[in-house]
Amino acid sequence: MCVSYGLEMRTIFVYKLIVTLWGVSGQWIFPDKLHMESSATINKHCGEMPYNVRERPAFGRMYENPWLVLLRHPEDTLHFCHGTLVSNKYVLTTAICAMAVVTNANTTTQQHATEVILGEHDLSSETDCITAWNCSLPTTRRSIERVIVHDNFTSNFYENDIALLQMNASIQFDNSIRPICLPLVSIVDNTDDQQQTIYNTIWSKDSVPRQIWMRNVPTEVCRKQISRIFVLSDGQICARFFQDNFLVDMNGSAGSALQVDYHGRIFQYGLLSVGFRDVVEKAPYVYIDIAKYINWIHDSLTNNP
After folding, report:
1. In tens digits, what is the pLDDT along the chain, a chain of 305 residues?
2. 7-23 exposure pattern, b = at least 16 Cβ within 10 A, e = fewer
3. Alpha carbon distances (Å) from 94 to 50, 57, 76, 104
4. Which CATH fold topology does 68-179+294-303 show?
5. Peptidase S1 domain: which residues (predicted)?
């Protein structure tokens, strides 16, 4: 059930990215064109929601996170991981979460295989409504047809902790189900200067998703901070809660998105991998740097249509 692809693959996509970045006659072009038009596979109808992206409340509103999905075993009450929708048939998550999918598939019947739950908002209700006349469709559930884990994933320090889940049927996009945008090049400075507002949105113990305000932790600062317990690799970045002494249950949040508003769209620039909440002061969390893996994501989707 598990198929993997190496990071070293270089396709026409890489060439198109370079050409688009440089533009015509050596002129730099507006970055939206770079992110939106360099691939025929990703960043289509992505990152849109009907709210001011710079003023996000502590708890997500309906239609505010249409790309967020849950991974759940049908026999369990709660989800075990998160993921994000990146195309009409693929979910992005961590390799650790993907391996849990594979393990479950090998030990249970098809009836009890892991579900991908899309279009969810309030876990306590079957139908979510803003008003009596504005209700979302029921949640959509898909089984997993194929698991694609990064070829160089290692569990020692969660290097290359990234995977894609191919669903058994395509998804029709609507207000409740929409893919998130992915950065083709880095769009967030590696500093703690909070010029961009970033969030990690998860379902915690609350019935609706919590939108957690985060702050970047520069790589070298994070590397020193966790050096006694963890070795940070080049494909990993760090963030912590913006507010000191902020407490939230992060269980089951692996695979969730570190999100940033970029030119009016929501981009996922980090994938939650590892946390040290009870070990290190100011609680850095380790994320996979999406921009470093964009070629792998694109190639994996293109080679498994």
Report:
1. 444 334 344 454 554 555 445 444 445 556 788 888 888 889 999 999 988 777 789 999 999 999 999 999 877 778 899 999 999 999 999 999 999 888 877 776 665 678 999 999 988 887 888 877 788 888 899 999 999 999 999 988 999 999 999 999 999 999 999 999 999 888 887 776 666 789 999 998 889 999 999 999 999 999 998 888 899 999 999 999 988 888 888 888 999 999 999 888 999 999 999 987 666 666 789 999 999 999 999 999 988 75
2. bebeeebeebbeebeee
3. 28, 26, 20, 16
4. Thrombin, subunit H (2.40.10)
5. 57-302
**In the numeric block, which tokens belong to residue 195?**
């010029």
Q: Report how far apart, in Å, the C-alpha atoms of 108 and of each of 69, 111, 168 are.
A: 22, 8, 18
In order, the DSSP letters of 86-104 are -SSSEEEE-HHHHHHHHHH
Alpha carbons 105 and 192: distance in angstroms, whole number? 41
The alpha helices in 112-262, defined as continuous H runs, are 219-225
The tokens for 79 are 């989800």
